[in-house]
Design a protein that fits this description.
about 110 residues; 5 strands; about 35% strand
């Protein structure tokens, strides 16, 4: 129970905002590039989780939870990341509603 509470706290899930899920190249600087882009639109990074399970060699799953983005800025970021071909999904938490956008149902 306590471990579960710690994991919940680490992910920032109790806060409102949005969560981006990406599949990116596993190379130095890729996280910073994404977070710089998000910050340039006014996003505040709440948490970053990363995994190399179930992705092709040289790739990495990356989950970034953010706050401070209104819907228009969130939509612009979604378009940018879709154009780059790295967005897997986006969840937007608005009040008690959650909106889910699936970009990649069948990742490589």
């Amino acid at each position: 129970s306590d471990l579960f509470k710690v994991l919940i706290s680490l992910t920032g899930i109790e806060r409102k905002g949005a969560q981006f899920a990406f599949t990116v190249a596993d190379r130095p600087g890729c996280i910073r590039e994404l977070t710089d882009t998000i910050r340039s639109y006014g996003g505040r990074i709440l948490s970053i989780l990363s995994s190399s399970n179930h992705v092709p060699r040289g790739k990495r799953k990356l989950y970034i939870r953010v706050s401070g983005l209104d819907r228009p800025r969130l939509d612009r970021l979604k378009s940018i990341f879709l154009d780059e071909g790295i967005l897997r999904y986006l969840v937007f938490f608005e009040g008690i509603r959650r909106q889910l956008f699936l970009a990649d149902l069948f990742p490589e």
